[in-house]
Amino acid sequence: MNFDFSLQPNEAGTNSNAVTQVPPNGASQHQSPQPFGIIVPGYAVRTNFVPVDSSGMKFGLTLTCPGDIATPLASVHELVFFTLPNIPFPPNYGVLCYWQITAAVSQTPDLPPPSTGFELLGSIRPDRPSSVFHTGWSEHEQLLEVAQNNTPVTLTIGVSLEPLENLQNIAGSSVSASKLFVAQKIASDLFNFMQSFDTGTGGAGQMVVPNNIFERWFKRFEARFQRDPNFFLKSED
């Protein structure tokens, strides 16, 4: 997915559906609260999202690791995301929350630092203004490559207001794609294991393997999974 949550000059919004920040009683307009909050378990709540364009429909938050977050991101399994009180949603709109991990420095001269690109975390809506998002970072191959060897990274949380009719379709396709990716990796591991035992006597396009090949693969898979739950997601290069 390609989303631009890079910070832009804070211009006055022109979109009638933009988030309206309503200050608490007695507070002046410039003291109005930020629209969203996020919690990384073990750390203080963060509400310093800022608009990233003039539409008032996109917001961003950048955290450093190590720095703002000391824990390796692969060990962060959940995030809590919510809207703050006194922040009304535009009619018939919800919120999609995305993440991106970018290495702090490039490991290859003349190339930008590696990045995962933006991926969907989850969504909230007027009737459910908070949610616990499962990150899946411990199983994310590209994240593990970007953050390998404890490389310093930045975590960008992007927030986009979207019509409710789009929310379910976008969130559903992202979950399906993630499950398909994991299934493909497991199937590939099984195929490669079976291929290594092929006797070569089955002719073109056929594979002949021992009868207990699946049992042997599963025992091997379990043993490797106990040592490293992400082994089958890593590149085979």
TrEMBL record:
<feature type="domain" description="Hikeshi-like N-terminal">
    <location>
        <begin position="39"/>
        <end position="169"/>
    </location>
</feature>
<dbReference type="GO" id="GO:0006606">
    <property type="term" value="P:protein import into nucleus"/>
</dbReference>
<dbReference type="GO" id="GO:0061608">
    <property type="term" value="F:nuclear import signal receptor activity"/>
</dbReference>
<protein>
    <recommendedName>
        <fullName>Hikeshi-like domain-containing protein</fullName>
    </recommendedName>
</protein>
<feature type="domain" description="Hikeshi-like C-terminal">
    <location>
        <begin position="182"/>
        <end position="232"/>
    </location>
</feature>
<dbReference type="Pfam" id="PF05603">
    <property type="entry name" value="Hikeshi-like_N"/>
</dbReference>
<dbReference type="Pfam" id="PF21057">
    <property type="entry name" value="Hikeshi-like_C"/>
</dbReference>
<dbReference type="InterPro" id="IPR008493">
    <property type="entry name" value="Hikeshi-like_N"/>
</dbReference>
<dbReference type="InterPro" id="IPR048364">
    <property type="entry name" value="Hikeshi-like_C"/>
</dbReference>
<dbReference type="GO" id="GO:0005829">
    <property type="term" value="C:cytosol"/>
</dbReference>
<feature type="region of interest" description="Disordered">
    <location>
        <begin position="1"/>
        <end position="33"/>
    </location>
</feature>
<comment type="similarity">
    <text>Belongs to the OPI10 family.</text>
</comment>
<dbReference type="InterPro" id="IPR031318">
    <property type="entry name" value="OPI10"/>
</dbReference>
<dbReference type="GO" id="GO:0005634">
    <property type="term" value="C:nucleus"/>
</dbReference>
